[in-house]
Write a structure and sequence with these properties.
- This protein is mostly helical.
- The protein has two domains: 84 residues, DNA polymerase, domain 1 (Orthogonal Bundle); 180 residues, hpI Integrase, Chain A.
- Helix content is 59%, strand content 4%.
- The protein has a three-stranded antiparallel β-sheet with strand order 1-2-3.
- A hairpin with a 5-residue loop joins strand 2 and strand 3.
- Helix 6 runs antiparallel to helix 8.
- The termini are far apart.
Length: 295
């Protein structure tokens, strides 16, 4: 294994972190995918289109889903596009490689009742961490935030008078997020009380803090969601991103305009947001079947 390939991968990952503002989780995933490709295909300065095809075929033969294979191809293609821009390669061997076809799965969501059950289960915990947890989940669901966006929030991002947040999304793209009364009330209670207790030994400007006064991590957010499921007796194995999916679906179910939801989510393409219309139609069908007397 050459130092050149390692240098290229490390440089690309630094670029993702510093320029693209990718999350730590994303950078680790890209690094892992590229190292695996390097080990299988050989030195990255010598890789050709045939090597990329053979690598993807091997992944498929090992049972990897077409969706996962397509994702790994996208990583390789993005990596070589970066090398071209830097002048380290004159071509992109993955540019003309066709991704396997797959039907994107619908994002999984909680029902409105399950969402209420999850959040209401946190009300009784009046400890500083309990108040923080409720505020965190109210903000993620109430504003449709990604976990990384929630943990990146600083105090000056909160606009109390208008009930808005300034959120830094993917690619350093900022957007304004609206919060409803329950989320703003939970956030205000946390910031004015519990946060001061958690920040006693810290000078950080982060909104959501851990028990030591440092900025919360996305890994911690996952643990908080898992614990909230148990407390709220919600019998679903969900990730924090389900809250964002649920936010979009519930808005559309109640008549929100698709482009408005696109803006609130920070999607670059309307096509990305359109997938939620399928979910809302499915959910409306279930509601009809369970509630209409002649369904």
């Amino acid at each position: 294994m050459s130092n050149l390939s390692e240098t290229w991968i490390d440089g690309f990952c630094r670029y993702l972190s510093a320029v693209e503002q990718a999350s730590e989780h994303t950078v680790r995933a890209y690094h892992s995918d590229l190292v695996a490709f390097w080990r299988a295909a050989g030195e990255l300065d010598q890789v050709g289109t045939g090597d990329v095809y053979r690598y993807l075929a091997a992944l498929g033969a090992r049972g990897l889903s077409p969706r996962s294979v397509a994702r790994k191809l996208a990583v390789i293609r993005t990596f070589y596009r970066y090398l071209e821009r830097e002048g380290w390669r004159q071509d992109n061997p993955a540019r003309r490689v066709l991704a396997p076809r797959y039907r994107p799965g619908l994002p999984r969501v909680l029902t409105v009742d399950e969402m209420s059950q999850l959040l209401d289960g946190l009300v009784s915990n009046r400890t500083p961490l309990g108040v923080r947890n409720r505020a965190l989940l109210e903000v993620i669901y109430g504003g449709g935030l990604r976990s990384q966006e929630a943990v990146d929030l600083d105090l000056d991002a909160i606009h109390w008078a208008t009930g808005e947040l300034t959120v830094k999304g993917k690619g350093r793209k900022y957007r304004t997020v609206l919060l409803g009364r329950p989320a703003m009330a939970a956030l205000q209670e946390y910031v004015e009380g519990a946060r001061s207790t958690l920040a006693a030994r810290s000078s950080t400007t982060a909104v959501f803090l851990n028990a030591r006064g440092g900025r919360l991590t996305t890994r911690s957010v996952r643990r908080i969601v898992k614990a909230a499921l148990v407390v709220g007796a919600v019998r679903r194995n969900i990730s924090p991103h389900w809250l964002r999916h649920s936010f979009a679906t519930h808005l559309l179910m109640n008549g929100a305009d698709l482009r408005a939801v696109q803006e609130l989510l920070g999607h670059r393409s309307l096509r990305t947001t359109q997938i939620y219309t399928h979910i809302s139609q499915e959910e409306l069908g279930r509601i009809y079947e369970h509630t209409h007397p002649r369904a």
